[in-house]
Amino acid sequence: QVQLQESGPGLVKPSQTLSLTCTVSGGSITTNVYSWSWIRQPPGKGLEWIGYIRESGTYYNPSLKSRTSISRDTSKNQITLQLSSVTPEDTAVYYCLRSDGYWGQGTQVTVSS
Known about the structure:
By secondary structure, this protein is mostly beta strands.
């Protein structure tokens, strides 16, 4: 069974770049069948789609596109998220997920000085 595990710093300073990693086990990320997404949930708010990556390329939420980069490391079976120029509004629980409904447990990121 596929498992996804997010990891990264829990605290990031404003204006810095947030970097998160999603490590996938039980299945290869090099597949034409699925896409791999990042989603976040700010405190007290709903889910916000950040973007996804698949064999054909990457696709981003237009509101975040200028600050977002999603890539993959096939040697480590990992999906990475980078979000630049963060502000306190980027404070959220960040999730990675596979398009057929497998989610990671999420990782809390707080942006604060």
